[in-house]
Inverse folding.
């Protein structure tokens, strides 16, 4: 790294301790940091024709003053001035806040240039900058930077210009020539110059493309290098499964595997046979048939003389998985056992002893599986379901219960590909993107709250046919702050509404686990027809006779979560329905409800959710593991992300990457991240 660029920003004229501190707040310490403080947008001062502009756009127009300005003052320092301007053939209203002193300067028939936000409906512009006379002097296209405290845009522009003039010559290329030529990218110095001092928007596009690729490549190289090192440093076990037995098991299933299931099974088996430890994420929408894939993997491990473990987040889910696996394995001699905190005393001791002796082939359970007392005889394959609900630590403990067992993470939360390769970039990803044949799609409707009567009437119609319904509410109890329906209230009013015709049950997270189980049992046995619940039923619950899902305050849920909830119905042979009760306030809120009614495909839902909410909100900010890119945007630049991933994967496999000077600067990134030591690797 060039030492000039590593100097403190204080070497620049005008930057003293105080300014340096403000800059440091934004992680700008060195000249290099300052030069890489990219504009987050550009102010375009080129004059626009009002015929071409869209509502809410920021624009600059030139016009003739057509009326005396009228000024209204309110409060101590607040004012609002309006003045009519003739812009081309349009008469528009210019609105200027808190600059009363301009009143005397605005003269009828004179020309002014204004910049601001355009309101198409009112034919008005909210002015943020105003210049008297034609054509403002200076640049037509200027960078806008993030600022802190007393920093001004003008001084930030000056610091950056100064830094570039003094040290621009020291900027070095970081990408290898081959890739620059391949993608026709501008070199680093030119690109930096254009980002800060562009003439035209088109130029910025080209320069930006370079930095997007550079950021993604650096990030993906870290992921791919980690993946490679992890593989090489934790040799796995070669599992010589019995193919004939596996085939017989698959043939005996009550249904043929879908194409996607077959593909994914092959990916898993290839990993198991390889000397590397499997580290794979299996994604598949609700109902896509992950359980049977898991069963085949577990069975493969059993036929190679090892044990398998399946860890799930809740007891209900553990019980259901245990039941379906026992059914799938039926009479073929594989012993499956369930271990949760409810399995106690003698039964527990027996299971633990049989497990340690290697008599239990497959153990299914909650995090009870990772307690110290649980010892496997020879653990070969570990699956965690709904893996994002477990912490990294819990996953590690389970993995260490065997000697380098193969590990599969399963999730029914469809993660958009862009996010999957970002957050889980160091894993291999398998996707079941096909539903078993003959599935009915769930009909989804969005209803306003004033349509509740009709919704209830519809529910009653279904209940009369012998079906059951879920009613989901966002909170347990009434909260002062949030005006939301709560499960307890809704339960009371539905009990009243259905009188003695149908029974409503209540389920929420504050119930004791034995109470929860009793409610679930009663619902599964159809002793309860309507289950009013918070989102605790989200994962895994399987009651095929339930055909109606009503969700209160649906706008409060994420789309991925709504999709999960919807997946509780549509599990039997009857047509199922999902009704979203929602009063979204914003356009985005309305758009989200519409998406739910238009598609049943979890991947489409999650892609849209990502587009609308952005990557930070998708997983919840804290645990997302998504890096802060300076220029790149994972959603909009996803093609570049994919390209960078492919390139990174190829690079880490090549000898040149680890040895040739051409790649030194990329390797430096890995050293900085602590992935590599400074020494030369073999
Ligand atoms: P999920 O991916 O949500 O865990 P499951 O594994 O629970 O899905 O499967 C949902 C249902 O689909 C189960 O009843 C299962 O038996 C059935 N199923 C799985 N694979 C197939 C298939 N290839 N053809 C038909 N039905 C299948
Ligand atoms: Mg499942």
């Amino acid at each position: 790294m060039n030492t000039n660029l590593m100097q403190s920003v204080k070497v620049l004229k005008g930057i003293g301790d105080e300014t340096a501190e403000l800059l440091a707040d934004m992680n700008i310490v060195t000249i290099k940091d300052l030069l890489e403080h990219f504009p987050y947008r550009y102010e375009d001062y080129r004059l626009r024709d009002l015929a071409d502009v869209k509502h809410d756009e920021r624009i600059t127009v030139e016009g003739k003053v057509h009326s005396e300005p009228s000024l209204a003052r309110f409060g101590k320092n607040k004012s609002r001035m309006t003045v009519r301007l003739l812009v081309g053939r349009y008469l528009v209203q210019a609105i200027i806040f808190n600059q009363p002193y301009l009143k005397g300067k605005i003269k009828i028939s004179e020309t002014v240039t204004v910049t601001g936000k355009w309101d198409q409906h009112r034919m008005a512009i909210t002015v943020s900058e105003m210049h008297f006379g034609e054509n403002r002097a200076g640049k037509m296209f200027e960078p806008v930077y993030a600022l802190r405290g007393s920093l001004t845009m003008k001084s930030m522009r000056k610091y950056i210009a100064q830094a570039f003039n003094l040290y621009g010559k020291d900027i070095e290329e970081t990408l290898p020539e081959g890739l620059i030529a391949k993608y026709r990218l501008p070199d680093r110095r030119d690109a930096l110059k254009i980002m800060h001092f562009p003439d035209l928007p088109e130029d910025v596009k080209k320069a930006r493309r370079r930095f997007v690729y550079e950021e993604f490549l650096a990030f993906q190289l870290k992921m791919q290098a980690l993946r490679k090192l992890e593989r090489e440093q934790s040799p796995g076990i070669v599992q010589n499964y019995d193919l004939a037995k596996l085939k017989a098991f698959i043939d005996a299933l009550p249904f043929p595997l879908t194409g996607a299931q077959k593909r994914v099974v092959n990916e898993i088996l290839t990993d198991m046979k390889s000397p590397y430890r499997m580290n794979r994420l299996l994604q598949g929408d609700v109902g896509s048939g992950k359980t049977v894939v898991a069963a085949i993997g577990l069975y493969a491990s059993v036929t190679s003389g090892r044990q398998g473990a399946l860890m799930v987040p809740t007891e209900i889910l553990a019980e259901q998985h245990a039941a379906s696996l026992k059914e799938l394995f039926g009479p073929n001699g594989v012993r499956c056992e369930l271990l949760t905190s409810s399995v106690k005393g003698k039964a527990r001791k027996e299971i633990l002893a049989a497990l340690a002796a290697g008599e239990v082939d497959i153990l299914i359970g909650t995090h009870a599986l990772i307690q110290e007392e649980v010892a496997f005889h020879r653990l070969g394959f570990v699956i965690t379901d709904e893996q994002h609900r477990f912490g990294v630590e819990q996953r590690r403990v389970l993995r260490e219960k065997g000697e380098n067992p193969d590990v599969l993470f399963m999730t029914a939360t469809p993660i958009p590909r862009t996010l999957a390769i970002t957050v889980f970039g160091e894993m291999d990803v398998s996707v079941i993107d096909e539903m078993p044949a003959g599935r009915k799609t769930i009909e989804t409707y969005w209803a306003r709250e004033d349509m509740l009567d009709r919704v209830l009437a519809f529910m009653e119609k279904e209940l009369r046919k012998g079906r059951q319904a879920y009613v989901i509410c966002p909170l347990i109890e009434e909260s002062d702050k949030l005006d939301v329906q709560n499960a307890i209230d809704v339960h009371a009013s539905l009990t009243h509404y259905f009188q003695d015709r149908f029974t409503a049950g209540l389920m929420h997270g504050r119930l004791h686990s034995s109470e929860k189980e009793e409610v679930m049992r009663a619902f599964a046995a159809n002793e309860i027809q309507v289950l009013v619940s918070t989102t605790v039923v989200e994962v895994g619950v399987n009651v095929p006779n339930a055909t109606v899902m009503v969700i209160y305050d649906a706008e409060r849920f994420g789309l991925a979560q709504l999709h999960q909830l919807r997946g509780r119905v549509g599990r039997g042979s009857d047509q199922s329905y999902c009704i979203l009760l929602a009063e979204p306030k914003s356009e985005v809120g309305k758009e989200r409800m519409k998406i739910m009614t238009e598609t049943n495909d979890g991947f489409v839902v999650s892609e849209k959710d990502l587009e609308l909410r952005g990557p930070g909100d998708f997983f919840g900010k804290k645990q997302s593991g998504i890096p802060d890119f300076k220029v790149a945007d994972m959603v909009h630049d996803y093609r570049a992300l994919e390209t960078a991933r492919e390139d990174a994967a190829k690079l880490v496999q090549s000898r040149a990457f680890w040895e040739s000077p051409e790649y030194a600067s990329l390797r430096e990134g890995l050293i900085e991240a602590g992935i590599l030591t400074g020494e030369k690797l073999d």
Residues 496 and 585 are 30 Å apart (CA to CA). The radius of gyration is 31 Å. Residues 46-132 form a domain with the OB fold (Dihydrolipoamide Acetyltransferase, E2P) fold (CATH 2.40.50.140). The longest helix spans residues 201-233.
